[in-house]
Amino acid sequence: MSMATEPSGVPLLEARGLTVRFGKVTALKGLDLTAPPGQVLAILGPNGAGKTTFVRTVATLVRPTSGSLLVYGRDVVRDPAGVRRDIGLAGQFAAVEPTMTGRENLEMTARLFGHGRTAAKRAAAVVIEQLSLGEVADRRASSYSGGQRRRLDLGASLVGGPRLLLLDEPTTGLDPVSRCEVWDAVRGLAADGTSILLTTHYLDEADELADRVVVIDHGAVVASGTLSRLKASIGQDVIEVAVTEPGKLSAVAQILERVTSNSARLEPGGRHASVPAPGGPAELASVIACLAEAAIAVDEIGLRRPTLDEVFLTLTDEAKISPAPAGASMNGSAR
Amino acid sequence: MTVTQAVASPAIGRPARTPGVASAALQVALRALRKYVRTPGLIVMGVVQSALFLFSFRYVFGGAIHAGAGISYVEFLVPAYVASIVLFTGGGIAVAVAEDRAEGFTDRLLSLPVPRYSLVLGRTLADSITNVWSVLTTAAFGFLFGFRLPGSWLDGLAALGLCVLYAVVFTSVFIVMGLFAPSPQAAQGMSLIVFVFAFLSSGYVPATSMPGWLQPFSKYQPVTPMVDAVRSLLTGSASDVGLALAWSALLIVVFTPVAVLRYRRA
């Protein structure tokens, strides 16, 4: 609500041909992106895609090699100090001082944002309330659970009243309960109108929190839009088969391709094949019928949601790799 | 409830201005000092280590070392030991700086609208204070293990002042080490390098007792004139305090800007 006073027309983020190189490694390769304020934007991508580098560039911790990046219209190279006043960063690790209490951590960070003593105390109190840290606020952070630590870290990025909150993999390494705590906190902030940029490699996290999603890979944007639109284009189920005899794999692949009209992915030298199946259960039934007719024995066959790897493969339109057997039920495959 | 929240969140306004250098440095220093004071292991280990080293030199090796005509080993050792104690205990600074980088704390600080050099200033302030604490406790152990001031209290205070100056000087060296170390473990390893400068000085044995090829290194490295200056203030022996001050100034002038520049891209 409070953010409704933003001058309209100034984008939250505006990246043009943003390139960041570390020695020989190119982390961002001509990334283009425009994001409006007042939204939760999720940057999604596999490990090494450039998500963290992008956040660090927005946070003025990394200088672009070329291209430009504006945060609320301020250039990260020409006016880094101005950008820093607008942002709050909660990085991949909870950057709180464990030997200090939650309140001490928040007050310290508030002072470093420029608040006076009284204003810092008040900002800390507001954040403690906002993130439900009241019970533990006066205990040392070393005694906090993982979720409490992350929430405290989140709080530390809020005490300066930032216009943009940067969350780099906010729930990585958290147990499911802590994860939900952090999600609730982020949802609360978003409801208050804070603009949030978060990175994640969990589809469901983007699903829970984000208004808009940008998928990046190899340092460039490969897809962007609302999550529902993105899912509609990539959210096909996958038929996965484990054959009994590895020699029959190519015959299975032919059946899979004939039924679904998609190209199958084969595990090189292995027994697994998979294929996107837009027709879902009906196509699975056809495949089973065809396999029976051809008298090909299988150890396992089933329909499952695509893994994130497969989503990225679809988006980046890459060639065949082995399917990821992890997560699929693998009964009868001990051999 | 939603209404109160909507009212509550704008209560955190954006600060009207960015923090000044002194105020930001103070916050950075306070946090480092709190960490030090609230981690009992850090203080205890520092004190135990300095006492143990001094005990070993004084009572174990000392009997076999001939310090020179007319001077007992304890008189020879203690001034130099107090002057160079920070070289042994300062490794913790390098480790702490490297840990802050590894754990994202430095990133957090750098994402805040604080003047860049206030980070180095705050760090230097805090670590200088812990180093001065090392110097004072070590001096106390020196007296406990049999050292007595040969001259006046005033000379003693001047010598102590010089040791405190060195504590500040070496702080910047260890900060730079922590900023360049690829990991906290590496910082620990790198801080052992300075042991070489301590041992290959005139601090523990007379430099003239070293093999000839080693003597030039011992003579021209900074720690030798620094410990000699402290000794000369106490015993009235002729040594160049000016040279020690010049080395101190040079080390600060070289290492502090390196630390400031390195912090920008830590």
Architecture overview:
The complex is a heterodimer of chains A (335) and B (266). Chain A has 335 residues and is α/β, with parallel strands linked by helices. Chain A folds into two domains: 2-232, Rossmann fold; 235-316, 2-Layer Sandwich (Alpha-Beta Plaits). Chain A is built from eleven helices and 14 strands. Chain B has one domain (20-264). Chain B contains 13 helices and no strands. Chain B has helices at residues 2-8, 21-38, 40-61, 73-89, 91-102, 105-110, 116-144, 153-180, 184-190, 193-199, 215-220, 223-235, 241-264. In chain B, helix 3 (40-61) crosses helix 7 and helix 12 packs across helix 13 (241-264). Chains A and B meet through helix 2, strand 6, helix 3 and helix 4 of A and helix 1, helix 2 and helix 6 of B.
Describe the secondary-structure layout:
The complex is a heterodimer of chains A (335) and B (266).
Chain A: E1 13-22, E2 25-35, E3 40-44, H1 51-58, E4 66-71, E5 74-75, H2 80-86, E6 87-90, H3 102-113, H4 117-130, H5 146-156, E7 164-168, H6 176-191, E8 195-200, H7 203-209, E9 212-217, E10 220-226, H8 227-234, E11 237-243, H9 249-260, E12 265-266, E13 272-277, H10 281-293, E14 298-304, H11 308-316
Parallel strand pairs in A: 3-8, 3-9, 6-7, 7-8
Antiparallel strand pairs in A: 1-2, 1-4, 4-5, 9-10, 11-13, 11-14, 12-13
Helix pairs in contact in A: 3-4, 5-6, 9-10
Chain B: H1 2-8, H2 21-38, H3 40-61, H4 73-89, H5 91-102, H6 105-110, H7 116-144, H8 153-180, H9 184-190, H10 193-199, H11 215-220, H12 223-235, H13 241-264
